[in-house]
Amino acid sequence: MDATALLVGNYLHSYFESPAAHEAFIEEHKDEIKSSRKPYKLLKPYQQAEMMIKTLDEDETFQQFYQGDKEVIVTGKIEGVPWKGKIDCLNLDNNYFIDLKTTRDLHMKYWDTDEHKYVPFVTKYNYQLQMAVYRELIKQTFGIECTPYIVGVTKQDPPDKAVLSIPDEQLDWALDDVKAGQQHILDVRHGKAEPTRCEQCDYCRSTKTLGDIISIEDLVD
Ligand SMILES: [Zn+2]
């Protein structure tokens, strides 16, 4: 995710956290989000963020749904490894939590090279794994099992929006993935193991050396 996309996401999140949080965010980032010339208008990506905010803010279902504690820090351990998360909106009275996600298009298809099929943006960015970890940390922190929902809002004009649920078995698989994969990540962090190369990301491209010759049939998964 590029820096602007991250800032746009934070801009939107701070709005739905509280008026004070949003004001503080704008003040802290005014050089990045506003034009340097009079009348100091919001730059294009943040005008778009305003549209995204408006479409949720004016939706009655969203207003009723996005109720609870905002930006709640939860901690816990998954098989002995410490984890920490921040819940956008936690409603312990009704056993659910919500994560706000900004995305290009709710219906965009991404090719999954492992599964050899198209997957939605939630799967592409492994958000179901994030939701599975949050659900576990909430359970450990408060002793309550909550259902995760993603409220997706798009950068289209006009923006699209939807409340998304994740099938239980996908959350269970995701938590199994965490348990199976976290030891290797810790080993890489502690210099005890080499990272697994994907040959697709910024890191892999920047550290690539020419080796094998690749058949054109293997270029695309
Ligand atoms: Zn890589």
Task: Write up what this structure looks like.
- With 221 residues, the chain is α+β, with helices and mostly antiparallel strands.
- It has 2 domains: 58 residues; 163 residues, Alpha-Beta Complex (Lambda Exonuclease, Chain A), CATH 3.90.320.
- The radius of gyration is 20 Å and the shape is globular.
- The chain starts with a helix and ends in a 15-residue tail after the last helix.
- The mean pLDDT is 94.
- It binds zinc ion.
- InterPro entries: PDDEXK-like_dom_sf, Put_RecE_PDDEXK-like_dom.
- This is Putative exodeoxyribonuclease 8 PDDEXK-like domain-containing protein.
Question: What is the number of strand segments?
Answer: 7
Ligands in the model, by name, code or SMILES, are:
zinc ion
Low-confidence stretches: none
Helix segment tally = 9
Mean pLDDT: 94
Pfam families: DUF3799
Domain Putative exodeoxyribonuclease 8 PDDEXK-like: 2-207
Organism: Secundilactobacillus collinoides DSM 20515 = JCM 1123
GO molecular function: ATP binding; helicase activity
Short synopsis of the structure:
The protein has 221 residues and is α+β, with helices and mostly antiparallel strands.
Helix and strand topology:
Blueprint: H1 3-17, H2 19-28, H3 30-33, H4 44-57, H5 60-65, E1 69-78, E2 81-91, E3 96-103, E4 110-112, E5 117-119, H6 121-124, H7 127-142, E6 147-154, E7 161-165, H8 168-189, H9 202-206
This protein binds zinc ion.
The site of zinc ion has 6 residues, from helix 9.
